[in-house]
Amino acid sequence: MIETQLHQLAQWLHTPSKMVIIPHKNPDGDAMGSTLAWQNVMQQLGHTATVLAPNPYPTFLHWMPGHSDVVIYESEEEKGNKLVAEADFIFTLDFNTLKRIDDLGIRVAESKAKKIMIDHHQEPEGYADLMFSEPHIGSTCELVYQLLERLDIRKHINKEVATCIYTGILTDTGSFRFPSVTANTHKAVAHLIECGANHSHIHEQIKDTARPDRLKLLGIALQNMVFLDDINTVYITLSQDELDACHFQKGDAEGFVNYGLSVEGIKVAVLMIEYRHEGLVKFSFRSKGDVAVNTFAKTYFDGGGHLNAAGGISKRSLAQTKPFLVESLRAYFG
């Protein structure tokens, strides 16, 4: 982290102010964990801080401390616009391009508030006045923890903050399995547990609250798994009709792609889901070792992310997307 930016942020935090804290669209555990943790600490420091999420997030995250105070821009646009217009500071967490928050990004760009990016994805855009971008760190929540350390305000990590940060680290590191996990990650987690994070309870809330329909959908996904043995790759498809048959809810397919990666010898796993009402097929890409799915996603599917975890989209139909995906995989990884 650049010391001059840390010093500037520390100065800004000295004076009570109005803050808006924004995660990316379709927020996951890391996005919500980092924003809710940052909000809690900012409130302890005397600031008026509000988490403004672009759209709803999965119900398996609704137990998190601070959830009840989150403003959802999609359903409270007028309130959200007012918060942005009156903000002194806007923090954007777990994303690095305003395209990731759709129409809310226009309001943020127009705002005269100081903008601070806290993120761990590659190739950040230059919209922020201060930019804490650390792509080598496994989660934005771990980066938030490091910021609290460097700003000498780690003492404000109470049970609620520790719970939120632990949740984000857990979810974005695949339960600590990804190569981005380091000794520093485990040291941070140890301190979070000391601060009151109940690791077994958090795991239960994230992993053990599935509806029966979600398990039925998982069964369909596993039946739809296709192996491309020549390039050590597997892909899974889920159609809109299959989602509807299982009463799909946001977050139901979380982690499905990892089942493909669990197969011996597989280096790349892909999950593609049809969202007919959006006219899109959305992708999750996962890989092992030094196989770069982020550059693959960027090259073929208007996506990006991390070396071993990325996302993307296709505006073709699912039937058209499948052969294009196979062709692209063989061209890139073959």
Order of strands, main sheet, comes to 3-2-1-4-5-6
What fraction, in percent, of the residue positions are helical?
A: 40-55%
Give the CATH superfamily of the largest domain: inorganic pyrophosphatase (n-terminal core)
Number of strands: 12
- CATH topology of the largest domain: the name is inorganic pyrophosphatase (n-terminal core)
Q: How much of the polypeptide forms β-strand, as a percent range?
A: 15-25%
Task: Provide the domain count.
Answer: 2
Low-confidence regions: none
SSE order, as H and E? HEHEEHEHEEHHHHHEEHHEEHEEH
Shape: globular
* CATH class assignment of the largest domain: Alpha Beta
- What summary fits the major beta sheet? 6 strands, parallel
**Any idea what the radius of gyration is?**
20 Å
Note the total helix count: 13
Mean pLDDT over all positions: 96
Instruction: Kindly report how far apart the N and C termini lie.
Output: 38 Å
